[in-house]
């Protein structure tokens, strides 16, 4: 204990003040001061470890399901760029998914292209088609843009059936899946999972970098207020077209992974319902959220099958009711639910 003596300026008696120094901020328990960034980093590291070990802990069918989650995750990342980050709406994302799947299938079946080259080829084809659609739909927005993209999804299936000499028509195309190299010691389902995981990780990192770049900031400005964005010098037409192209490119990559994983493509696999299910999954996962596509991919993969298990006669009804329930419980999507619950707890304490 230390004592400090002070004399009053009026000549009064001296007063004695007792001071007890508290612990330095650095001496306090560290866990209370761990930043949110550290918690997120730890959660991401744990997620990576779990994803790497999953094929060794699960049976082949479960590994296949997780692979399909990764396939849909790549496609939904692209849809999130368009809808969640640039404010445009698309009901035709399944058409670009089909473009990637069929580009891969045709290259493998007709031209015997190595698997490793089909991924950039499918992405390039989808990117060019998205660029063309984005440039032609610049003057459309809202419901008009939604109708145009919906027409694209409706038109896709008959078009694939029409050119049967190339696409296989209604019968589709059956392909050999990528086989694991002997030195890996992996089973086929494990090899496909790790291929999808590697592509997904690369696409997710590219997506995160895009959001932190000038392009990401421009897309957010356009989404929030197009007029204000143009006043600040953001070229609305350029960035909206780029958003369409990037969205289609990610869908094309997802379609390529789909062909690798399934080993079969047919027009009926890419009906309009696929586009609607993807958009519903993204909304449920969380529009504009970095982790929304991951939660949406889980929703797209598991909820329809679980609905069918509950009632085979009306899986669509159960699927729709689940979407309504989630929207009431989490209007901003499942990705925003933790923050919503935290705010609710703080409000009650106050």
From TrEMBL:
Transmembrane region(s): 38-58, 64-83, 90-108, 114-135, 142-160, 191-210, 242-263, 317-339
Location of this chain's protein in the cell: Cell membrane
The keyword Transmembrane is assigned to this record: yes
Compositional bias per record (Low complexity), positions renumbered to this chain: 13-27
Membrane topology: Multi-pass membrane protein
Source organism superkingdom: Bacteria
Keyword annotations from UniProtKB, A to Z: Cell membrane, Membrane, Transmembrane, Transmembrane helix
CDD domains according to UniProt: TM_PBP1_LivM_like
Ranges where the record places region Disordered: 1-30
Keyword Ribosomal protein listed: no
PANTHER family reported in the protein's UniProt record: HIGH-AFFINITY BRANCHED-CHAIN AMINO ACID TRANSPORT SYSTEM PERMEASE (PTHR30482), HIGH-AFFINITY BRANCHED-CHAIN AMINO ACID TRANSPORT SYSTEM PERMEASE PROTEIN LIVM (PTHR30482:SF20)
Protein's name in the database: Branched-chain amino acid ABC transporter permease
């Amino acid at each position: 204990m230390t004592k400090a003596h002070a004399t009053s300026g009026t000549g009064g008696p001296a007063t004695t003040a007792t001071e007890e120094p508290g612990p330095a901020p650095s001496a306090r328990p560290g866990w209370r001061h761990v930043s949110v960034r550290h918690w997120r980093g730890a959660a991401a590291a744990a997620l990576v470890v779990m994803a790497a070990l999953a094929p060794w802990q699960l049976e082949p069918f479960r590994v296949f399901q997780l692979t399909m989650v990764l396939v849909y995750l790549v496609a939904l990342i692209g849809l999130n760029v368009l809808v969640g980050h640039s404010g445009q709406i698309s009901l035709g994302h399944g058409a670009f998914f089909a473009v990637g799947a069929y580009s891969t299938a045709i290259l493998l079946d007709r031209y015997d292209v190595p698997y490793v080259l089909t991924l950039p080829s499918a992405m390039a084809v989808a990117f060019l088609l998205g660029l063309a659609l984005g440039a032609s739909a610049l003057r459309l927005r809202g419901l008009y843009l939604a109708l145009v993209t919906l027409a694209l999804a409706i038109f896709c299936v008959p078009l694939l059936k029409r050119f049967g000499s190339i696409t296989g028509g209604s019968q589709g195309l059956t392909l050999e899946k990528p086989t694991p190299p002997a030195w890996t010691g992996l089973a086929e389902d494990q090899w496909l999972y790790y291929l999808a995981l590697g592509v997904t990780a690369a696409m997710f990192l590219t997506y995160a970098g895009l959001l932190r770049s000038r392009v990401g900031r421009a897309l957010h400005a356009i989404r929030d207020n197009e007029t204000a964005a143009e006043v600040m010098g953001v070229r609305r037409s350029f960035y909206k077209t780029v958003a369409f192209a990037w969205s289609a490119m990610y869908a094309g990559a997802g379609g390529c992974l789909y062909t690798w994983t399934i080993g079969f493509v047919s027009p009926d696999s890419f009906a309009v319902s696929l586009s609607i299910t993807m958009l519903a999954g993204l909304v449920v996962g969380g529009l504009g959220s970095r982790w929304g596509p991951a939660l949406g991919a889980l929703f797209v993969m598991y909820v329809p099958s679980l609905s069918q298990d509950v009632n085979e006669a009306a899986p669509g009804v159960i699927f729709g009711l689940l979407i309504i329930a989630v929207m009431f419980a989490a209007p901003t999507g499942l990705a925003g639910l933790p923050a919503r619950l935290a705010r609710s707890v703080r409000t009650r304490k106050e």
